[in-house]
Design a protein that fits this description.
The chain folds into two domains: 28-133 and 264-309, D-Maltodextrin-Binding Protein, domain 2, CATH 3.40.190.10; 135-260 and 335-354, 3-Layer(aba) Sandwich (D-Maltodextrin-Binding Protein, domain 2). With 355 residues, the chain is an alpha/beta fold. The chain is 42% helix and 18% strand. The radius of gyration is 23 Å and the shape is globular. The longest helix has 26 residues, at 2-27. Helix 7 packs parallel to helix 14. Strands 1, 2, 3, 6, 9, 10, 11, 12 and 13 form a nine-stranded mixed sheet that branches. A two-stranded antiparallel sheet has the order 4-5. The chain is built from 14 helices and 13 strands. The protein starts with a helix and ends with a helix. It has helices spanning 2-27, 42-52, 64-73, 86-94, 113-116, 172-182, 193-206, 217-225, 236-244, 274-285, 287-294, 314-320, 324-330, 342-354; strands at residues 29-35, 54-60, 81-82, 122-123, 126-127, 130-142, 166-169, 210-214, 231-235, 249-252, 258-267, 302-303, 333-334.
Length: 355
């Protein structure tokens, strides 16, 4: 009799445990994020999942075109958080694709002054994106083969002695923008057709020197690391990652200036979990997580929250240029924008790649 009662008790306990587990699983929320590399690394995601008893599903993209394609081809409500570059936030806001954010819920006062009210994240006085990572383009070069004095101008990329040794990231937005700066434009994204033709001519003349057209930032970093290329129009991220690995890579913004890059986190208008999405952006904007994002395994790059430097070593801060020097260099750059005739830019880039 006692054995029977014990067995019944055991079964009841098991059933109760099963109900509790099913209830817990039913309550577990899922957050779907579409991001650049780095945001979904375990050091960032796992503690968030543990804190909020949720599951984060993520998908990386390699350029804003890929972001838009994956977003638009997915069923409505698939994505909760998206991670566009600066120039797209305003457009997404005007298209009604992203939600207005309450600035009081994010530590904007802790951000570098440039990002406390970053113009491209505000539309008609309303916030639609929270700044996360930033940097600037310039010339990344191997000091074994190239002297600092040689990279004071974009002109070096066309030097015949670097035939086959130029690496370039496969994205028209930064590259055409940088070469627009080279021909003297303060805001290259407003260039007219004649100015675009000048850049097209430069690109076609550059092609013999191009050894690699890298599909991703990681591919370009690898090409610089293995010395298949020696020089590249690249972001600050190339220098930081490669120097940390021990490679003799430096980075300089030429005298003509360059374009900057900035990433934001936004909540989609059709998010199924907007409250959890808000918590995720708050998480990503916090100093400690900003430091982890800055030193992500994918690549290293500066982040918007200046208090993140408290969680980085002085050497890391210097490499990332998350200081006054970095802000000074940043002043030599211009914001990226969506080109007036974006299709014309795409056509020029495709012609360059096909040449």
């Amino acid at each position: 009799m006692k054995m029977r009662i014990g067995f019944v008790t055991l079964v009841m306990s098991f059933l109760l445990l099963l109900v509790v587990c099913q209830s817990t699983m039913a309550e577990e929320k899922v957050l779907n994020i579409l991001t650049w590399a780095g945001y979904n690394e375990d050091q960032i995601i796992v503690p968030f999942e543990q804190k909020y008893s949720c599951k984060v599903n993520s998908k990386n993209f390699n350029g804003d075109e890929q972001l838009i394609t994956r977003w638009e081809t997915a069923p409505k409500g698939t994505w909760d958080v998206v991670n566009p570059d600066d120039q797209w936030v305003e457009l997404f806001a005007k298209q009604g694709k992203v939600r207005e954010l309450d600035p009081s819920k994010y530590p904007l006062q802790d951000f570098f002054p440039r990002y406390q009210k970053f113009p491209q994240h505000w539309v008609d006085g309303k916030l639609y994106g929270v700044a996360t990572r930033w940097g600037f383009y310039g010339i990344a070069y191997n000091t074994k083969y190239i002297k600092e004095s040689e990279v004071d101008s974009w002109k070096i990329l066309w030097d015949p002695k670097y035939k086959g040794k130029v690496g370039i990231y496969d994205w028209y937005i930064p590259n055409i923008g940088n070469f627009g700066r080279y021909i003297g434009l303060e805001q290259p994204y407003d260039m007219d057709n004649e100015q675009l033709k000048k850049v097209e001519k430069l690109l076609l003349e550059l092609k013999p020197n191009v050894g690699t057209i890298a599909l991703t930032a990681s591919d370009l970093i690898s090409a610089l690391a293995n010395e298949s290329v020696w020089i590249s129009p690249a972001g600050e991220w190339a220098r930081v990652t490669l120097k940390e690995q021990g490679h003799p890579i430096e980075h300089q913004v030429p005298k003509e200036g360059s374009v900057s890059w900035n990433e934001a986190l936004c909540i989609t208008s059709d998010s199924k979990n907007p409250d959890l999405a808000e918590k995720f952006i708050q998480w990503m904007a916090s100093p400690e997580i900003q430091a982890k994002l800055a030193w992500a395994k994918a690549f290293h790059a500066a982040t918007a929250n200046r208090k993140a430097t408290q969680f980085l070593t002085p050497e890391q801060v210097d490499l990332l240029r998350m200081n006054d020097k970095g802000m000074e260099i940043h002043n030599k750059t211009c914001f990226r924008k969506i080109p007036k005739d974006e299709q014309a830019w795409k056509d020029v880039w495709q012609k360059f790649k096909a040449e």
